[in-house]
Fold this protein.
Amino acid sequence: MYKLILKFLVIAAIVLAIGRVVVSNVISTSGVQLGKMNEKIAVLRTENDSLKEELFSKSSLENIASEAAKLGFTDKKESFVLTSPLPIAAR
């Protein structure tokens, strides 16, 4: 009976040691992949920030006004009214 328990414990210890080696190997390679993903995230965040800045500069009113002037649009300086306004209050 004791020999059977002893054999079982030795086999269990060997299986657990092999399992520990396999799990350690998997974890070590996933750390490298995690590092690569973090680097890619940092690059994408930097690119996203630069694209945000470019979008803000392109959508600014100053930029839109200069682009409109290049296309030939001008400010209207005079008013055009079809009818005269009604008086607000009668005297």
Residues 31-58 form one domain. The chain has a mean pLDDT of 87. The two ends are 120 Å apart (CA to CA). Residues 2-58 form the longest helix (57 residues).
